[in-house]
Write a structure and sequence with these properties.
heterodimer, A: alpha+beta, elongated, B: 2 helices
Chain lengths: ~140, ~130
């Protein structure tokens, strides 16, 4: 697929969202381009014995490209899972790309490949890998 | 699904925005007492919201160090510390959703579906976090 991005990045973000939604297979997209403390996120989820997540994150980088109207972004794929009490979240891959009015077919193909890797990682997570614990609500804590 | 903790009902991590409690800013301000809502920023975002913002924002009532912010709020780009924060007065914001536990993190978040007015910004400039 050949894609040309607008300098402002709006179509770029739409393009990433489309790629994510089309690429997550049995996962259900639950968040679309939400902005959290400086990064955009797309989140897809599925549930079997664990809640499994794949997250695409986009963060505009401080060190922009030396081209007028272009923007540099950090793109990340995360995988995660939880069982309601314990969780794990890990970075699967990261790369930088630049938006400008030019073709970025290679980056698009790369992103498809990395999304598959993140799905594979999320699918492979086991309960034994959930090493972090969610904070228990105070009402549910056992008395001292 | 809601989990009851003291007076505040904190929504579970899988609660979508559309099912979060829709509350007035005054209501959330009473809940938080004297605390503000915090919106962390990357350095290059300084000044971006000085006139307020009409887009959706995620905020938290909890102050974190730059190192803690990434893991407690489950933020991406861990190499880019959120070294600045905007303090927002919830009483000056018309609509607030939440609170909700952060998915794959330990923090709590609120959602500002319509953003926040300039009048909600406590200090004129963003505050550095050290």
């Amino acid at each position: 697929m050949t894609m040309a991005f607008d300098p402002g990045g709006a179509k770029f973000i739409d393009s990433l969202g489309s790629l994510f939604e089309e690429g997550v297979g049995p996962y259900k997209v639950v968040d679309v381009a939400i902005e959290r403390h400086g990064s955009w996120e797309w989140v897809a989820y599925r549930r079997d014995n664990l809640n499994r997540y794949v997250i695409l994150a986009l963060t505009e980088l401080e060190q922009g490209p030396p081209l007028p109207m272009a923007r540099a972004y950090g793109v990340e794929l995360w995988a995660g899972a939880d069982d309601g009490q314990r969780y794990w979240r890990g970075l699967v891959s990261r790369f930088s790309l630049m938006t400008a009015p030019f073709v970025i077919e290679e980056e698009y193909v790369q992103l498809q490949r990395l999304l598959k890797a993140a799905l594979t990682r999320a699918d492979s997570l086991t309960a034994a890998e959930l090493r972090d614990s969610y904070l228990p609500p105070r009402a549910l804590r056992k008395p001292a | 699904m809601l989990e009851v903790q003291q007076a505040a009902a904190i929504a579970s991590r899988d609660t979508p925005d559309s099912q979060l409690q829709r509350r007035s800013g005054a209501d959330v301000a009473r809940e938080l007492g004297t605390r503000y809502l915090l919106r962390y920023l990357l350095p290059h975002q300084l000044g971006q919201f000085q006139n307020g913002s009409s887009r959706k924002h995620h905020v938290t009532p909890t102050p974190y160090s730059p190192e803690e912010t990434i893991s407690w709020l489950a933020l991406p780009q861990p190499t880019e510390a959120r070294t600045y924060v905007m303090l927002l007065d919830p009483a000056r914001i018309s609509v607030i959703l939440g609170p909700r536990w952060v998915r794959l993190g330990k923090g709590i978040e609120y959602v500002l579906p319509d953003g926040f007015p300039q009048g909600a910004i406590v200090f004129r400039w963003e505050v550095p976090v050290t």
